[in-house]
């Protein structure tokens, strides 16, 4: 049983427009049997934070191509991407590099 | 790219496409491939981890290398930087700031100003939201310390018809050579002695001393007129093209009026790749090199330069996060209810999706674009130059069948200004866009004025020819 995890989740580059224009979100992920990773965080975001048009943010179980992910200001490609195990007080930043739509 | 490993995971067998196939980062923290010491902060290209310090050096060097290699920005020259508030142009401004703050030997030696085109009207922003965006942008522009100009897209309605003609003068090799310009600049500096001024060349009088006060938003009537043009356009693709055209013309006119011979635009490598395939799909194959290349000389006196085209969108985004480069986000161009997405959007989605599985897709498209020549875009005379994009007409010698989709056949009323009469003035691609734009009275006045002038001129020439041939 994993303890609740507190995170700062941020959106930038236009991705915030899908979240009521709010860039910074303090979130607390509830207890769950499995440890939280980015994969399960994305599911949680889709259910709890995303206001509209999830297809503009999520594709399959990952983010849509063109959206970059930074974990504690480092490229998620260095951290195991979807499999990264979230720690308490982590900062996860999603930046859209898409032009429009 | 299929690494079938014998366990049935060959091409097409997967239901879920395999995402990046790099080694999972179990061994993090990884170290920088460049210095071998710092903790890697991002992966550029495939599998090249960089630490922050090395990434910064790499990024800053690339900008200087781009300008150094191409040698088109002369020392002391006034350069207008087109800023949208987006990531690439904001990073570009930061590179110029970096370059100007270097020690003398390495300092960039041109004189920058900024220009911003406010497009809230066509991005469905309320007047309050527009004011808000403007305030953010002005704060960003002011913080640079460079002179700046703020324009509204509505001002495109007042552009002079002459923006559709190349300006007189320095195009190509007729201008002074780079080396000569540098030599005379250095001499000039010696003569100026140790006046110790940090900015080279120009007296400060020709740049506005105080930033121009924003004159508030344009009249509601003008906004309405502008919106009418965009709403009359039948497709999202045509609207994108219209916006791009109006914005470019506004920026080039500003440069022309105020004596800037160069305009820097912030197209990134990713954007260039998307633009290459987009413009190919739009029928602009002949003009890809000028539409996306480092230099674009179609406007004659004002050269458009794209110094950011070596940076991927990812590099730019990371640079901006790491080094706190401020950006301002604006909503995208409006679309109509249940409308198909523009070709621009489709191509972007397609390329980025492909890139996800095949990480060299975008750089391959970009590098292929490098091989193209700007020659086909050159126009020999006014009658051979596209009214809208100023490129050389690519319709000559085409078989009639190929041009058929570009013709406008239905137009009953005679005598009145006819949309069909404009078709011969346009290149293949602009014909297609023009057809999707609204009726003539929804076009920007400068386009109509210049179009009418050319139509009359063509008629007169035709009449003269007829007279001469009847004499003979």
TrEMBL record, chain A:
GO CC annotations, alphabetized: cytosol
Keyword Acetylation: no
Subcellular location(s) of the protein: Cytoplasm
InterPro entries: Beta-grasp_dom_sf, Mopterin_synth/thiamin_S_b, Urm1
Coiled-coil regions, chain positions: none
Transmembrane residue ranges: none
Pathway the protein takes part in: tRNA modification; 5-methoxycarbonylmethyl-2-thiouridine-tRNA biosynthesis
Crosslink (Glycyl lysine isopeptide (Gly-Lys) (interchain with K-? in acceptor proteins)) position: 101
Main location: cytoplasm
GO BP annotations, alphabetical order: protein urmylation; tRNA thio-modification; tRNA wobble uridine modification
Keywords: Cytoplasm, Isopeptide bond, tRNA processing, Ubl conjugation pathway
PTM comment: C-terminal thiocarboxylation occurs in 2 steps, it is first acyl-adenylated (-COAMP) via the hesA/moeB/thiF part of MOCS3, then thiocarboxylated (-COSH) via the rhodanese domain of MOCS3.
Keyword tRNA processing: yes
Post-translational modification 1-thioglycine, affected residues: 101
Sequence similarity: Belongs to the URM1 family.
Physiological role: Acts as a sulfur carrier required for 2-thiolation of mcm(5)S(2)U at tRNA wobble positions of cytosolic tRNA(Lys), tRNA(Glu) and tRNA(Gln). Serves as sulfur donor in tRNA 2-thiolation reaction by being thiocarboxylated (-COSH) at its C-terminus by MOCS3. The sulfur is then transferred to tRNA to form 2-thiolation of mcm(5)S(2)U. Also acts as a ubiquitin-like protein (UBL) that is covalently conjugated via an isopeptide bond to lysine residues of target proteins.
Name the UniProt record assigns to this protein: Ubiquitin-related modifier 1
From TrEMBL, chain B:
Region (Disordered): 1-29, 189-217
Keywords annotated in UniProt: Cytoplasm, tRNA processing
Pathway: tRNA modification; 5-methoxycarbonylmethyl-2-thiouridine-tRNA biosynthesis
GO cellular component: cytosol
Biased composition, class Low complexity, residue ranges: 189-198
One example of a Gene Ontology biological process annotation: protein urmylation
Entry superkingdom: Eukaryota
Gene3D superfamilies for the chain: HUPs
Location(s), subcellular: Cytoplasm
Gly residues bias locations: 1-12
GO molecular function: nucleotidyltransferase activity; sulfurtransferase activity; tRNA binding
InterPro entries: CTU2, Rossmann-like_a/b/a_fold
Subcellular location, principal: cytoplasm
Family as reported in the entry's similarity comment: Belongs to the CTU2/NCS2 family.
Task of the protein: Plays a central role in 2-thiolation of mcm(5)S(2)U at tRNA wobble positions of tRNA(Lys), tRNA(Glu) and tRNA(Gln). May act by forming a heterodimer with CTU1/ATPBD3 that ligates sulfur from thiocarboxylated URM1 onto the uridine of tRNAs at wobble position.
Protein name: Cytoplasmic tRNA 2-thiolation protein 2
Organism of derivation: Cyanoderma ruficeps
Primary gene name: CTU2
């Amino acid at each position: 049983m994993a303890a609740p995890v507190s995170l700062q989740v941020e959106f930038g580059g236009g991705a915030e427009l899908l979240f009521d224009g709010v860039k910074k979100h303090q979130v607390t992920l509830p207890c769950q049997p499995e440890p939280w990773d980015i994969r399960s965080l994305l599911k949680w975001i889709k259910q709890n934070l995303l206001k509209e048009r999830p297809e503009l943010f999520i594709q399959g179980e990952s983010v849509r191509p063109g959206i970059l992910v930074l974990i504690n200001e480092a490229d998620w490609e260095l951290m195991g991407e979807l499999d990264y195990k979230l720690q308490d007080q982590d900062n996860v930043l999603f930046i859209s590099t898409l032009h429009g739509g | 790219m299929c690494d079938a490993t014998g366990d049935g995971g060959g091409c097409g067998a997967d239901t879920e496409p395999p995402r990046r196939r790099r080694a999972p980062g179990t061994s993090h923290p990884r170290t920088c491939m460049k210095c071998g010491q710092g903790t890697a902060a991002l992966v550029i290209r495939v599998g090249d981890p960089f630490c922050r310090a090395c990434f910064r050096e790499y990024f800053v060097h690339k900008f200087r290398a781009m300008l150094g290699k191409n040698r088109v920005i002369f020392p002391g020259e006034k350069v207008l930087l087109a800023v949208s508030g987006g990531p690439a142009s904001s990073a570009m401004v930061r590179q110029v700031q970096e370059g100007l703050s270097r020690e003398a030997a390495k300092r960039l030696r041109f004189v920058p100003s900024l220009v911003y085109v406010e497009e809230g009207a066509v991005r469905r922003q309320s007047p309050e939201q527009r004011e808000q965006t403007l305030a953010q942008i002005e704060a960003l522009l002011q913080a640079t310390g460079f002179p700046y100009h703020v324009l509204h897209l509505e001002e495109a309605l007042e552009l002079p018809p002459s923006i559709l003609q190349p300006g007189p003068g320095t195009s190509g090799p007729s201008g002074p050579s780079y080396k000569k310009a540098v030599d005379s600049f250095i001499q000039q500096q010696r003569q100026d002695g140790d006046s110790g001024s940090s900015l080279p060349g120009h007296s400060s009088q020709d740049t506005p001393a105080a930033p121009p006060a924003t004159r508030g938003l344009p009249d509601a009537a003008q906004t309405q007129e502008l919106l009418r043009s965009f709403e009359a356009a039948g497709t999202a693709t045509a609207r994108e093209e219209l916006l791009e055209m109006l914005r470019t013309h506004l920026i080039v006119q500003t440069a022309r009026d105020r004596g800037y011979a160069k305009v820097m635009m912030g197209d990134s490598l990713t954007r260039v790749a998307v633009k290459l395939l987009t413009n190919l799909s739009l029928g602009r194959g002949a003009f890809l090199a000028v539409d996306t290349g480092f230099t674009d000389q179609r406007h004659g006196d004002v050269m458009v330069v794209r110094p950011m085209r070596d940076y991927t969108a990812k590099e730019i985004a990371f640079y901006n996060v790491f080094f706190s480069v401020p950006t301002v986000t604006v909503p995208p161009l409006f679309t109509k209810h249940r409308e198909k997405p523009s070709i621009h959007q489709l191509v972007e989605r397609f390329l980025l999706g492909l890139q996800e599985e095949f990480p060299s897709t975008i750089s391959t498209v970009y590098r292929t674009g490098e091989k193209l020549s700007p020659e086909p875009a050159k126009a020999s005379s006014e009658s051979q130059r596209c009214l809208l994009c100023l490129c050389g007409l690519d319709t000559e010698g085409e078989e009639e069948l190929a041009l058929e989709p570009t013709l406008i056949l239905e137009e009953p009323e005679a005598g009145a200004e006819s949309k069909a009469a404009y078709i011969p003035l346009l290149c293949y691609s602009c014909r297609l866009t023009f057809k999707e734009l609204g009726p003539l009275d929804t076009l920007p006045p400068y386009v109509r004025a210049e179009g009418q002038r050319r139509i009359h001129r063509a008629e007169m020439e035709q009449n003269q020819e007829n007279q001469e041939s009847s004499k003979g």
